[in-house]
Design brief:
binds flavin-adenine dinucleotide, single chain, 11 helices, nine-stranded mixed sheet, sarcosine oxidase activity
Length: 437
């Protein structure tokens, strides 16, 4: 076995090893380096199923939980004013359509906004969708708002740029898939075993930021897992990458982006000509064995993926008919770690003093990239109390969930069985003609 990172003479400052180079990991590395930590290593296995590999992300401030909103406002400040992040946030505006079942969410958002002295959202009629997107007239009652302050982040580029900045300030990056962590009799993690060898972790703080794989790694290491309500459960979703004609891209690039809550979202990429994606927002778990674990796996070639692509195609045809002729380029299966109350868990492990767990939440934490690492750094340094990100079981009331429609009640196996019986999926598998909208 080769040793990837050698223990250097302890200088007094502790070393930090961050497992996972996604939102949590990269943001933490940046903040640690800014605070003067000199020995920061990010060990990442860039998995194509990780949400950090996505091409674009929404930025928005609206949540039902005021604490969630306050956290976003801290990142907003950096997205708007820090030269590192500023070039990558594009203020596109966003139309959000809420079905009757989602109206509580909108009411909660208005309540939270009012508590933070932000104006309530102006409610529009569904006619706005017809005016802007030339949608076919909508019989269903939809509550529509236009958030002109929402935007889209040019995701790959901001991640590359932040990684480069970390390297420029002394951060080290290594590729390798962590298999498990070893601890000594005192509970200190002293080695990190990877597919390539192992990392000596003596005198090191370990930040476990492996997103939807956190629970697998804890289990493989026989380390106590957080209570179920705080466990980041791997939750799957499909995104469909589109290739628009240049004319379509120019048109939709200049229009607000569009989310129909609980159904589908359309995002035209802010800079890559022709690129866009639709995300079908039905989320599912993939339980394995007899435990509560859910396992990320590539399900892009399943019947469910085809069914959801056909559903997304029909949605686009109805809601954004100007996209006729655009092509489905690829189906992408992504997984995120979702906790019961949809707050991340950022906490020192109760039994392993040099292990910090940082992950979870729900489909919303890419926008925290500039700030969330400050929270992890404060937990590591013991300088901040962040009880909302703690280990303890806490009530997961619907009102606290910021994305109630994305809580994973559904199981992949059940959905796949249903999809395999769907006549449209069978027809598509025979003819394969509908890659075009
Ligand atoms: C389809 C989709 C769309 C989303 N859209 C938005 C959005 O529009 N706006 C928004 O704000 N948020 C969005 N999110 C949420 C956001 O992407 C996540 O909250 C965020 O990426 C979570 O960050 P993380 O660092 O915890 O995990 P990740 O981003 O998953 O990072 C974890 C990293 O660890 C690596 N890793 C995993 N296992 C190992 C291992 N064993 N060894 C080494 N490395 C490992 C992974 O490859 C990855 O690089 C979306 C999520 C999904 C799935």
């Amino acid at each position: 076995m080769s040793v990837l990172v050698h223990t250097e003479k302890c200088t007094g400052a502790r070393k930090c090893l961050i497992i996972g180079g996604g939102v949590m990991g990269l943001s933490t590395a940046w903040h640690l380096l800014k605070d003067g930590h000199t020995d920061v290593t990010v060990l990442d296995h860039p998995d194509p199923l990780a949400p950090s590999r996505d091409i674009s992300k929404f930025f928005r401030v609206d949540y039902t939980d005021p604490e969630r909103m306050k956290l976003v406002l801290k990142s907003k400040n950096l997205w708007e004013n820090d030269d590192l992040f500023k070039p990558f946030l594009h203020r596109t505006g966003r139309i959000v359509a809420y079905p009757p079942a989602g109206v509580d969410t909108l009411t909660g958002i208005d309540r939270a906004r009012s508590g933070l002295s932000l104006p309530a959202r102006k409610h529009e009629s569904a006619r706005l969708l017809e005016d802007i997107f030339e949608s076919t007239p909508i019989s269903q009652q939809l509550e529509v708002v236009y958030n002109e302050d929402d935007g889209v982040v040019d995701w790959n580029r901001v991640m590359k740029s932040l990684k480069q900045e970390c390297m420029n300030t002394g951060g080290k990056f290594q590729e390798g898939r962590v298999l498990h962590l070893d601890s000594n009799t005192g509970g200190m993690i002293d080695a990190v075993v990877t597919s390539e060898g192992f990392v000596d972790a003596a005198q090191t703080d370990i930040i476990l930021a492996a997103g939807p794989w956190i629970m697998q790694l804890l289990e493989a290491s026989s380390i106590q897992q957080p209570p179920l309500s705080r466990a980041p459960i791997a939750t799957g979703i499909f995104a469909f990458h589109l290739e628009l004609t240049t004319q379509q891209w120019v048109k939709y690039h200049n229009l607000p982006r569009f989310s129909e809550i609980g159904v589908c979202e359309f995002v035209c990429h802010p800079t890559d000509v022709g690129a866009a994606k639709v995300t079908w927002t039905t989320a599912f778990r993939n339980p394995s064995g007899d435990g509560a674990l859910s396992e990320p796996s590539d399900v892009a070639k399943t019947s469910l993926a085809i069914k959801m692509m056909l559903d997304a195609r029909d949605w686009v045809r109805k809601r954004i008919p100007g996209l006729k002729g655009a092509r489905f380029k690829s189906i992408q299966s992504y997984w995120d770690g979702v906790t019961g109350n949809q707050n991340p868990i950022i906490v020192r492990h109760p039994e392993h003093p040099n292990l910090i767990i940082a992950g979870g939440g729900s489909y919303t934490h890419a926008k925290d990239l500039p700030y969330i690492g400050r929270v992890v750094t404060e937990v590591l340094q013991g300088t901040g109390t962040h009880s909302q990100f703690g280990w303890d079981e806490r009530p997961a009331g619907k009102h606290l969930n910021n994305q109630p429609s994305l809580y994973p009640d559904l199981l992949f196996g059940d959905l796949e069985l249903e999809a395999s019986r769907d006549q449209r999926v069978k027809d598509w598998n025979r003819e394969r003609s509908d890659w075009i909208i």
